[in-house]
Write a structure and sequence with these properties.
- The chain has 132 residues and is α+β, with helices and mostly antiparallel strands.
- It has helices at 8-13, 17-33, 112-127; strands at 38-42, 45-50, 53-59, 67-70, 95-98, 101-105.
- It has one domain: Aspartate Aminotransferase, domain 1 (Alpha-Beta Complex), CATH 3.90.1150.200.
- Helix content is 30%, strand content 23%.
- The N and C termini lie far apart (33 Å).
- 23% of the residues are buried.
């Protein structure tokens, strides 16, 4: 897939206002969870890197809700349909796609409880090391 966007600003400019608002909510939550994450563009979306590893990616493609994908980049093998050892989601916000990849939808901008829960899930994910 060819890179359509070179910067996050280009990505944001291409979004309609409602979609951009959802993306901005997730970007804000990610920054709150860990301000040290490096924001890049990968897979034509805002992507967040921790210690050189892609860990979070915004998915605003399609017509469904904007989602945040929690993952370990492409270097680590994943097992589709495999259970995960991750236990940092007490509210069940995550939808699992493999043993090391899950997603969550952007909470409503004014839902402070959902925002706080999302921040905590992201923090737990960033501290998670499968197999450790």
């Amino acid at each position: 897939m060819a890179d359509r966007f070179r910067t996050v600003e280009e990505f944001l400019a291409a979004q309609d206002p409602a979609r951009r608002a959802e993306v901005d909510v997730l970007r804000s939550i990610v920054r709150e969870a860990d301000p040290q994450l490096v924001e890049t563009v990968k897979w034509n979306s805002p992507n967040y890197v921790l210690d050189g590893v892609d860990r979070l990616t915004v998915n605003a493609a399609g017509r469904g809700p904007v989602r945040l994908i929690l993952h370990f980049g492409t270097a680590r093998a994943e097992q589709a349909g495999g259970g995960s050892a991750f236990d940092g989601d007490p509210d069940g916000l995550l939808t699992w796609h493999s043993d090391i990849r899950a997603s969550l939808t952007a909470p409503a901008a004014d839902d402070t409880a959902a925002r706080a829960a999302t921040v905590e899930v992201i923090r737990a994910w960033l501290a998670f090391e499968p197999g450790a």
